TrEMBL record, chain A:
This is Sugar ABC transporter permease. SUPFAM superfamilies: MetI-like. It comes from Neogemmobacter tilapiae. Keywords: Cell membrane, Membrane, Transmembrane, Transmembrane helix, Transport. Belongs to the binding-protein-dependent transport system permease family.
UniProtKB/TrEMBL annotation, chain B:
GO terms for molecular function: ABC-type maltose transporter activity; ATP binding; ATP hydrolysis activity. The keyword Transport applies. The lineage of its organism: Bacteria, Pseudomonadati, Pseudomonadota, Alphaproteobacteria, Rhodobacterales. This is Sugar ABC transporter ATP-binding protein. Belongs to the ABC transporter superfamily. The keyword Lipid metabolism does not apply. It holds the Pfam family TOBE_2. It comes from Neogemmobacter tilapiae.
Amino acid sequence: MKIKRNGWVGLAWLSPTLLFVSVFVLWPMVHLVWLSFTSTSLLGGGEWVGFKNYTTAFNDPKFWAAFRFTLLYTVILTPILMGLGFALALLVSPNTPLRRVTRTVTFLPVVIGLASSSLLWFWLFDQQVGLFNRLLVDLNILSQPLVWFRKVDTAMIAVIISVTWKVVGFGMILIMAGIQSIPSDLFEAARIDGASLWLRVRRIILPLALRSILMATVLSVIGSMLAFDQFYLMTGGGPRGKTFTSVYWIYQNSFVRFDLGYGAALSVILMLVIMAMTALQLTLQSRGKA
Amino acid sequence: MTDQAHVRLTSLEKHFGAFQALKDIQLSVEKGEFCALLGPSGCGKSTLLRLIAGLEEATSGRIEIAGRDVTMLEPSDRQIAMVFQSYALYPHMSVAENIAFSLEAAGVPKAKRLAKAAEAAALLQLDQLLDRKPAALSGGQRQRVAIGRALVRDPQVFLFDEPLSNLDALLRVQMRIELSNLHRQIGATMIYVTHDQVEAMTMADKIVVMSAGQVQQVGTPMELYDNPANRFVAGFIGNPAMSFLNVAALPPALRPAGAQEVGIRPEHVQLTAPDAPLHGSVRLVERLGNQTLIHVETPAGPVCAQAPGHATARLGETVGLALEPGRAFLFDATGHRV
């Protein structure tokens, strides 16, 4: 039987989504790219400058310093989030009442805004009134309260602790969904086969939950490469501008120095870098599967 | 029970919350015996198998395998191997890796475990498929890999949980023969869960009929067929099923004393003249080629008669029925044999 094709009906069904994507994704992206070739200022005015913003960006040491810092932050944070997320997912994936409660409690910070949680942790790390400092002093880990945001490395640690608390539940849920989708009789067969927990994790859970782990990793890398709120609120880019992330530097140029055109060019560069990284991760995954 | 019991279950019970899944199970399986646990869905046969495997914990009672109390042991320490209904093959591993996984878990060196896997594969005609993944195998081949995985463990007892139910009818018959041959070849003790009485009757040395979490009767296939202990076993064993007639509605000359129901197998019912004391109208005629099943509605209840393949009977026609003397089973109001 020949299937009757009706393109117009299909287009009608798709039109709400197409409209949404066109207005809120495609048009802003096209506009961004156009802006990046102009000297548009936030205060108005500007003209076509061709690739000038891009050549400036490639010669801007501060942008590359911010980029390197973002990369370092991503490289440190991602394994922590994935490792901890996987361990938590292993713990909470069986559906027992206590594990369901643990799952919910671990996931709760995910629904809090990043800005709120950053502010919360800013005060927890405070030298005068911060409970985190107090705890570390009481546990004799620190001899006296630490000014976390005075040095780059301690500021980075503080931000990483706060972000881990905030988002680890998200990775946990994604990976847990992957683990729960593994048929239970495979685990039962492994029990009968006498597989230890380590062997089960290495030979069964990791390979079969790999898709979910990769998805969580890709989202985590994208999230980290776009880090802004946590640094804006906790470090303010300090000390001495050393904790500027790429997005923070884009913000500085676009909304503090009013140079929208340059900010747009930096955004395009960052977008291309993130797209390349994601494509690389997905390619590695598909090669691993083959 | 004898002292030769290879698997012995004593007063075994299992509760899931308030629900009692297994009630006072007493069973012994001899070494080398093929024992089928047979019953309808939800009767507790799979739960019983999982208790023996150690995948579920018994609420009370004792499980012994080869003279060892294994009630509290982990599945891997019970010297059992299990073939699951879904095969439970690791999808990302090759056939060889699947078969050898338990040896990997036991720390056997790679060369040795692959050699053992190849040995098991040869026995099951899987030797050409060792590098394939389960997704590239047919249902029957997957089933063989699952059996190979069990074989390589060299267990005291093989446990099968409805292993043929995912196969089509033809392959099921073929695998039934292969499993029976394998049992003869290796002489292992096997406990086999099924809801299919044909599988149980054709393969098992001993059948345990279960219903509502209880063992109804244990015996050889022909013992159960010829001498069912109660109405449930009588109705469950035999295809086509036994017909049950209400004694009170039978003609006075046919009423046995002290019985509530009379059970009669289709092969023991003959069609006779319509003026026979027991008669009724034909409700359904099922032609199977070598035989014809004629379903007759009588005042005492529906009766199925097995007639030769070319027997003639028309729907709605009144026919007489004669029950072969000495072949009827009598049951009291509780369903027990009289």
